[in-house]
Design a protein that fits this description.
- This protein is α/β, with parallel strands linked by helices.
- It has 3 domains: 77 residues, no CATH class; 199 residues, Vaccinia Virus protein VP39 (Rossmann fold); 84 residues, no CATH class.
- It has 14 helices and 10 strands.
- The strands form 3 sheets. The chain has a 6-stranded mixed β-sheet with strand order 2-1-3-4-7-5, covered by helices on one side. It has a two-stranded parallel ribbon with strand order 6-8. Strands 9-10 form a two-stranded antiparallel ribbon.
- Helix 5 crosses helix 14.
Length: 422
C-alpha cells in the first residue's frame, strides 16, 4: 500500500470520529459499535465480520482512490477500541456482573438502570432514527433497527442473562382461539416471545402502559401471560402496576411490569420492590436558573387553553390544562401537546419577555410556562449528565416515550437479586 496506514487511521478514526450511517447500512453501523463495546466479553464474534466491513466502507468513502483491505480495517478496529468505546457519557461497568439486551430501547432508560446495577448491554434495538442518535450520543452505540426483521434478529448473541423490552401494546386476533403463541403473530409481542423462546435468557423484564391490563377486555394480557407461562414455560408472577412517584421521581406515571424466570432455575417466588420512604416533589426538578422565554405561554395560547378547559368543565369532564403545585407531583409526561399542557408551572423569574419564536399575542405576565426538556428528563429519573442534542419537539417525544429509570432500576434490582447475581 502506498500510504501510511497509521496516519490514515488517526486522521479518519481519531477523537473526532463519528459513526457515519451510509444509506442502507444501518445494521452495519450498529454491528460496528456493538463490536467496540463487546470486544472483551466474547460477544464481539457476533459482530466482527460486519464491523470490519463497516470500517472498510467508511475508509473507502473517505479515500475512494485507495485500496482498503482487511488488514487496515482490523488495525482501525483495534485503534478504536481504546479511543471510542469508553469515551461516552455512560460507559458500561468495568467489571460487569451480568449481560442483558435492550429491545425497543428508545433513548436508553432501561440501559441506564441495568448498567447502574452492574449489567453489560450486549445488544440494543430501536427503529426511530432520532432516538438512535440520542442513544448513540450517550452510550456510544448505534442500536440495531427494526426488531421484527430477521436481518436484525440474527445479530442477537447467545448467552445473555436478562431480556429487557418496553414493547408497544397491540391487540391480538384471538377470537375463538385459545390465545397462544401463534395467535400473537403480526404483533411486536410475538417478536419478543420468539426471541425469548430462541435465546432462553435466565429472566425477562417487560414494561407496558397500565391500560394493557384491560386492553381488549383483558384478553391481550391474558394471551401474553399464557404464552410466557405455558408456551414458553417461564415462571411469571402476577404482573404489577408500578408508579414512578413511589420510586424517587415526582411524576404520577403508572406502568405495568411483567417479569419472568427460566424454569430450570427453579424460582417460584418474586417480590416487586417496596416504595421509597422519601417522596420527591415538582420543586425538586425545577431548573435552578431562569429558563428561555420560549417555554412561556403566549397570552393567545393561554386564553385558548382556558376556553378549552371551560368547555369540558361545562360538560362535566376534567380535561384541559393544569398548573402544577410545586409541592406536589407532575402528571405523566407523554407524547403530544397534553403531556406538556397538563404539566405547566408558575415561574416568575423571567426578566426578558421578548419572544424568540413566532407566537400570536404576547408572552404572558403570569409566569405560566411549560416544563423544559431537562425538567422532563428529571421527571423520568435520567441522570443530570444525560445528553439530548435534538429539537425540543423530539426531546419531549423521546422522553414521553421513555421509561422512568428509578422504577425500572428498583424492579431490576429485585430481578438480579432473585437470580443471585448481586
Amino acid at each position: 500500500m502506498q500510504f501510511n496506514e497509521t496516519v490514515l487511521i488517526e486522521k479518519v478514526l481519531g477523537d473526532s470520529f463519528k459513526v457515519r450511517i451510509l444509506e442502507g447500512e444501518e445494521n452495519s453501523a450498529a454491528a460496528f459499535t456493538h463490536y467496540l463495546h463487546n470486544h472483551s466479553n466474547g460477544v464481539s464474534n457476533f459482530f466482527k465480520k460486519d464491523a470490519l466491513n463497516h470500517v472498510k466502507k467508511q475508509l473507502s468513502y473517505q479515500f475512494p482512490d485507495k485500496e482498503i483491505n482487511d488488514e487496515v480495517a482490523d488495525e482501525a478496529l483495534q485503534y478504536l477500541l481504546f479511543n471510542l468505546a469508553t469515551n461516552v457519557p455512560f460507559p458500561a461497568p468495568a467489571n460487569p456482573k451480568f449481560k442483558f439486551i435492550d429491545l425497543f430501547a428508545g433513548i436508553g432508560g432501561f440501559r441506564i438502570a441495568m448498567q447502574n446495577l452492574g449489567g453489560k448491554c450486549v445488544f440494543s434495538s430501536e427503529w426511530d432514527k432520532y432516538s438512535q442518535k440520542t442513544y448513540e450520543l450517550n452510550f456510544g452505540e448505534v442500536p440495531f433497527g427494526d426488531i421484527t426483521k430477521e436481518s436484525t434478529k440474527k445479530y442477537i448473541p447467545d448467552g445473555f442473562d436478562v431480556l429487557c423490552a418496553g414493547f408497544p401494546c397491540q391487540a391480538f386476533s384471538i377470537a375463538g382461539k385459545r390465545g397462544g403463541f401463534e395467535d400473537t403473530r403480526g404483533t411486536l409481542f410475538f417478536d419478543v416471545a420468539e426471541i425469548i423462546n430462541q435465546k432462553r435468557p435466565k429472566a425477562f423484564f417487560l414494561e407496558n402502559v397500565k391500560g394493557l391490563r384491560n386492553h381488549d377486555g383483558g384478553r391481550t394480557l391474558s394471551t401474553i401471560l399464557n404464552v410466557l407461562r405455558n408456551d414458553l414455560g417461564y415462571f411469571v408472577p402476577e404482573p404489577e402496576i408500578i408508579n414512578a412517584k413511589d420510586f424517587g421521581v415526582p411524576q404520577n406515571r403508572e406502568r405495568i411490569f411483567i417479569v419472568g424466570f427460566r424454569p430450570d432455575l427453579n424460582i417460584s417466588k418474586f417480590k416487586y420492590p417496596k416504595k421509597y420512604d422519601v417522596p420527591k416533589t415538582v420543586q425538586d426538578i425545577i431548573e435552578k436558573k431562569e429558563v428561555s422565554v420560549k417555554y412561556y405561554l403566549s397570552t393567545t395560547y393561554l386564553e385558548t387553553l382556558r376556553k378549552h378547559k371551560a368547555r369540558h368543565e361545562g360538560k362535566g369532564n376534567g380535561f384541559g390544562y393544569q398548573i402544577l403545585e410545586k409541592e406536589g407531583v407532575a402528571n405523566a409526561v407523554v407524547c403530544g401537546g397534553m403531556g406538556r399542557e397538563r404539566n405547566l408551572i408558575i415561574d416568575n423569574r423571567l426578566t426578558n419577555f421578548t419572544p424568540v419564536t413566532k407566537i400570536t399575542g404576547e408572552v404572558n405576565k403570569e409566569g405560566i410556562r411549560k416544563l423544559t426538556p431537562f425538567e422532563w428528563s428529571q421527571l423520568q429519573g435520567f441522570p443530570k449528565g444525560f445528553q439530548l442534542k435534538v429539537s425540543d419537539v423530539q426531546a419531549y417525544k423521546q422522553l414521553g416515550n421513555s421509561v422512568a429509570v428509578p422504577a425500572i432500576q428498583a424492579t431490576a434490582n429485585e430481578i438480579v437479586k432473585t437470580l443471585k447475581i448481586l
